[in-house]
Amino acid sequence: MSTVSGVSSALDQYQIKQDTTQNKELGKNEFLNLLVAQLNNQNPLEPQGNGEFIAQLAQFSQVEGIEKLNSSMGSLLSGYQSSQALQASSMVGRKVIVPTDKAVVDTSQSFRASAVLPTSSSNVFVNVYNQAGSVVSRINLGEQAAGNVSFIWDGKDASGNLLPPGTYKFEAQASYGNETKGLYTMLPANVDSVTLGGSELMLNLAGLGSVPLSQVQVIGQ
């Protein structure tokens, strides 16, 4: 009658065969051959006595499960990248609203933006600076309730002269008694191009540089 010692002999023979082949991994066919050899040589009175055999079954099952998981994750990543590419192509040429204090302004048209007011204020105003850092205009909004406060700049200086197109800085502030605090501004920008790769889609905005898609508050036409 065959005994468990036959299993050890079969394992030894298989190990010798494996050692003669370099860089060869245990695949499904090799594992099945090993399985048949173990079943043929195990003790029929103690079919579950071979703890090593049971451990091998569990290990092979885990490895196969990990391979399937890796394959599924690869397919998911490929689909996500394709979705990113499609999303990127639709963003080029559109206008977005992002948290920034600078914007490229076409002064021949009214410039519309907003400021974020955390609490109500008795007086809200926005200073407009040119590229030289000089204040060219001031937009007075008066008393405002908490929330997004919209403002419009006509592209003119304090004397009513139309300014040239270019990059301007917008500094929003709110008065609270004798104290004045700065506010976040939400300004429009045009998407010139997009950059794929990494963990997030990056938008390359005209005159502003790159910002992650997660910072975009509104996507316009």
UniProtKB/TrEMBL annotation:
Domain named FlgD Tudor-like: residues: 83-217
InterPro entries in UniProt:
FlgD, FlgD/Vpr_Ig-like, FLgD_Tudor
Residues of the FlgD/Vpr Ig-like domain: 106-177
Offer one example of a GO biological process linked to this entry: bacterial-type flagellum organization
Decide whether keyword Ligase is in the record. no
Keywords assigned by UniProt?
Bacterial flagellum biogenesis, Cell projection, Cilium, Flagellum
Annotated family: Belongs to the FlgD family.
Q: What does this protein do?
A: Required for flagellar hook formation. May act as a scaffolding protein.
- What's the protein called, per UniProt? Basal-body rod modification protein FlgD
Taxonomy, top ranks, is: Bacteria, Pseudomonadati, Pseudomonadota, Gammaproteobacteria, Pseudomonadales
